[in-house]
Structure formats: structure tokens, C-alpha cells
Amino acid sequence: QVQLVESGGGLVQAGGSLRLSCAASGRTFGIYAMGWFRQAPGKAREFVAAISWSGGTTYYADSVKGRFTISRDNAKNTVYLQMNSLKPEDTAVYYCATKSGGWRVNVADDYNYWGQGTQVTVSS
User: Fold this and answer.
1) In angstroms, rounded to a whole number, what is the distance separating the alpha carbons of residues 51 and 72?
2) Rounded Cα distance, 81 and 104, in Å
3) Angle 46-103-42 (CA atoms, 0-180°, nearest 5)?
4) 49-107, pLDDT tens digit by residue?
5) Quick one: three-class SS letters along the chain?
6) Quick one: pLDDT at residue 90?
7) pLDDT number for residue 44
8) Do 90 and 123 form a contact (C-beta atoms < 8 A)?
């Protein structure tokens, strides 16, 4: 129903920046919010940031607040994650996802469609 295509991952040195993009296609009418999650090897998937599709309200994990910025382009059905001041602990596979309803934005189980993931590696 909804397809998500991510791009922008790569390798960067600590202190550097990357911008991730996620374009949604298909039946996107019911999207309430889009979010970014990340998962490092052997660790659980964790919330990074989210943005409501209509109002643009943003939410951030404490670990990235002040460094990452989530934004959206409704005309392009695309969400972005600008990542600045990257740290080695930011290394993970980053996934974008869509949320069709509910009130929680930081719980992965509440999202219904997911992208393929893009690798972000930060070297020290």
C-alpha cells in the first residue's frame, strides 16, 4: 500500500553531517506521521525522530536532540533527516516509517510501513 525508498546513508567521520531522505509512494493519503528509527547490530530498534504530516510537529529522541533535524516536503511525500555533529554511537541502519494513527510517535510497533533501511557509519 505504501512504499518507502530511503537514500543518503554513507560513511562519515565524527563531527560530520549527512542528510537522509525517504520518499513515500502508493496510498499515502492516510499518513499521520513519518518517523526515523535506527538499529545497530545486536541492539533493539530505537526511535530517532518523527514529524506529523499535517502540522509538522517534530519529536526527537534525547540522544539526537540539538543535532538532528527532521523535516518534510508534503508535495514530494518526502521526509528528511539532517544529521549534524555525528558521533560514532550514531552508527546504525536507519529506517523511515509511516504511522497511520494513534498518539505515540516513539514506538516502532505503532508504525505500519517501513523502508529498506540505509546504513550510516560514523568513524572516530
Assistant:
1) 8
2) 19
3) 10
4) 999 988 899 999 999 999 999 999 988 999 999 999 999 999 999 999 999 987 889 99
5) CEEEEEECCEEEECCCCEEEEEEEEECCCCCCEEEEEEECCCCCCEEEEEEECCCCCEEECCCCCCCEEEEEEHHHCEEEEEECCCCHHHCEEEEEEEECCCCCCCCHHHCCEECCCEEEEEEC
6) 98
7) 94
8) no
